[in-house]
Write a structure and sequence with these properties.
The protein is built from 13 helices and no strands. It has 286 residues and is mainly alpha-helical.
């Protein structure tokens, strides 16, 4: 992978990790979404504190960055809540396809608020990736999504994509302010633990043995995904880093075939070719 930048490789690793996370969310059916987020947040909080203490860093970060850290935590929590809510009813490949529109929104927000430069190759790759998603979802050539599921789950997933774009811009801003990636990650559970606990306390479900295994998978892969994505955003512009997340929809479709018997149509293969092709083009070192 010498022809790919380290930031893009980290982004691909993040996409793989997040796709495995959402597979385990799907497998842990019966556990409320907010309870899953609570366990995920506890794991991330403990892991982050351990890493920060080992590095001799303050868990609270730089004082002047507090508003951005809290904003990243809040945007991430609401985005994840909407995503977990939708994936319980939508196939994981479909949910991933909608949610991975987030690079489009992150590029727009980065251009508007961070004044990041844009290039023809950047927007071409975003367009190609979006067309690839259109093929996989059935919008191209059928003109409609391949689902009969209640539209509220589609709206929730799209809302998740928008707020994920906001969260990525917060992360990118914080990395330009020299904030530690581990501190950035720490603030997500700091915000999400109280919110998720309040939301699930009246609907608590005691996990079975298998559900504990699935919840552990959610925790581990979500933490790895955050690590890889944060480092990707540190090394790359927002659009370049988050554009690699399109690959998550391809990974999710593979997991759907392998573990959930979700067989894709021929549209998937066209879309996958477009998505992978645009990542190779956009991720090449200049």
């Amino acid at each position: 992978m010498n022809f790919l930048s380290k930031g893009v490789v980290s982004g691909i690793a993040a996409a793989l990790s997040f796709s495995l996370m959402i597979l385990f969310v799907k497998l842990a059916k019966g556990i409320p979404a907010q309870e899953t987020i609570f366990f995920r947040s506890i794991f991330t909080l403990i892991a982050s504190v351990i890493v920060l203490k080992q590095q001799g860093l303050s868990i609270w970060g730089q004082k002047e960055n507090k508003i951005f850290l809290l904003g990243r935590g809040l945007a991430g929590y609401v985005a994840l809540s909407a995503y977990f809510f939708s994936v319980r009813e939508l196939p994981i490949a479909v949910a991933s396809l909608v949610q991975y529109m987030s690079p489009v929104f992150s590029a727009i927000f980065a251009f508007l608020f961070l004044r990041e430069d844009s290039s023809f190759r950047q927007w071409l790759c975003l367009l190609v990736g979006f067309i690839g998603i259109g093929f996989i979802s059935g919008v191209i050539p059928n003109g409609n999504l391949n689902t009969s599921t209640n539209g509220v789950y589609w709206i929730s997933c799209l809302f998740s994509a928008i707020l994920s774009g906001v969260a990525y811009v917060f992360v990118r801003k914080l990395t330009t302010l020299k904030e530690s990636p581990e501190v950035i990650i720490f603030y997500f559970p700091l915000v999400s633990i109280p919110f998720s606990l309040v939301s699930t306390i009246n609907n608590w479900v005691l996990p079975s043995f298998n559900q504990w295994i699935y919840l552990l998978g959610v925790c581990v892969y979500s933490y790895l995904g955050q690590i890889f994505l944060t480092y990707s955003l540190k090394m790359e512009r927002t659009a370049a880093a988050t554009n690699t997340l399109y690959l998550g929809s391809v990974f999710a479709t593979i997991w759907g075939i392998s573990f959930l018997s979700e067989i894709p149509s021929w549209n998937f293969y066209i879309g996958a070719l477009l998505i992978i092709g645009c990542q190779l083009l956009f991720g090449r070192k200049k």
